[in-house]
Amino acid sequence: MSTGEGLGIHESDAPALCVLASGSSGNCAVLVVPKTEKFARRVILLDAGLSPARTGKLLHARGIRPDEVDEIVFTHLDSDHCHSGWPRAIRPGSWRATLRIHRMHMSRAERMGLLYTRCEPFDEGFCPAPNIDFGVEMLAHDDLGVATFRIRIDLEDSTSVTLGYATDLGRVTAGLIEHMGSVDVLAIESNYCPDMQLASSRPAFLKKRIMGGAGHLSNDESAYAAARMAPGEHLVLLHLSRECNSPETALHAHRHHGCAVTVSTQHEPTGWVCIRAGESRPTIRTRQVQGRLFQRPEATSTDP
Ligand SMILES: [Zn+2]
Q1: Cα 23 to ligand 1 centre (Å)
Q2: How far away, in angstroms, is 83 Cα from ligand 1 center?
Q3: pLDDT interval class at 92 (50, 70, 90)
Q4: E-state strands within 56-116
Q5: Around Cβ 100, how many Cβ atoms within 10 Å?
Q6: How far is the CA of 288 from the centre of ligand 1 (A)?
Q7: What is the number of structural domains in the chain?
Q8: Can you give the pTM of this predicted structure?
């Protein structure tokens, strides 16, 4: 297991991701794309499920001020991805980020008071900067769905690197696997161990919601997806359930990937994971991965 490349200020000239927190008590990651001769520095939050104060504190420890955050991009607006404090926090002189919200989530954003801020809806994709491109694939999650992102960052030397970010996925679809294929760094949820889920004291409706194809991915489903997406450089596991998973169990399911693996947690940020061009590895269609893989044909052949 890797803990990333340093805990404090991001000093490398490579773009980098730090998961500040991930889990049902709040999800937030920060993506820093350093300044180059051609392009300005960009700081982008992926989800904002921590309070503005806590987010500010964690960013401060990484040398980032609130007014340096350019964008907050939401996968969806559940309270663990969009903290209720944000509508009031965004104002001149403090947080000034543009909020990026999928069009399907805009009526919910209006009810939450988010439209008083600078808010840009997106559909299939958007470019928050000339060198950064977000490709979007929507997946099933509760009623309104969840946005997953393939983020391409163009570098000074005309090459590019890619980050995949996917959490709160009802199930793995062929569209998702194609969307995330061969990214350099993949951050994907690995929410629960089915045995622990079934043995837990949670009510039956909650277990059904989580495991029913519109909730979260199990460790094996996540490993199945990640093996097919074949990240070249680094794999980051997101949104582990505290009650129904453990870092060791999640790592065990993901033991066959040929890249570094970082497990994010609810209470401690990961180190900086640099987004560098990884070794180009063939996806599962042309490569035999060792060990038993999760098979759920009905889940991969049917898009939501
Ligand atoms: Zn969530």
Answers
A1: 7
A2: 11
A3: confident
A4: 71-73, 98-102
A5: 23
A6: 32
A7: 1
A8: 0.88
Ligand 1 centre distance from Cα of residue 301 (Å): 24
Q: b/e for 195-225, b at 16 or more Cβ within 10 A? A: ebbeeeebeeeebeebbebbbbbbbbbbbbb
Kindly state whether residue 264 falls inside one of the protein's structural domains. yes
Question: Could you tell me the distance, in angstroms and rounded to a whole number, from the CA of residue 14 to the centre of ligand 1?
Answer: 28
What was the pLDDT predicted at 6?
57
Return d(Cα 150, Cα 125) in angstroms, integer. 9
Between the CA of 240 and the centroid of ligand 1 the distance, in Å, is 10
Question: Looking at residues 79-85, what average pLDDT do you find?
Answer: 96
Distance between CA atoms of residues 45 and 65, nearest Å: 12
CATH number at residue 151: 3.60.15.10
Mean pLDDT score across all residues of the chain: 87
Sign for the pseudo-dihedral over CA of 233, 239, 245, 247: positive
Q: Is 160 exposed, middle or buried (0-12, 13-18, 19+ CB in 10 A)?
A: middle
Q: Is residue 284 part of a domain?
A: yes
CA of 40 from ligand 1 middle (Å) equals 31
Say how many Å lie between the CA of residue 239 and the centre of ligand 1: 7
Q: Is residue 235 part of a domain?
A: yes
Whether residue 296 lies inside any domain: the answer is: yes
- Do residues 80 and 49 touch, judged by C-beta distance below 8 A? yes
Q: The domain containing residue 243 runs over which residues?
A: 16-301
Q: Which of 149, 83, 65, 72 is nearest to 117 (CA)?
A: 72
Q: Which two tokens stand for residue 274?
A: 């640099």
Distance 76 CA to ligand 1 centre (A): 9
* CA–CA gap between residue 23 and residue 239 (Å, rounded): 4
CA of 244 to the centre of ligand 1 (A): 14
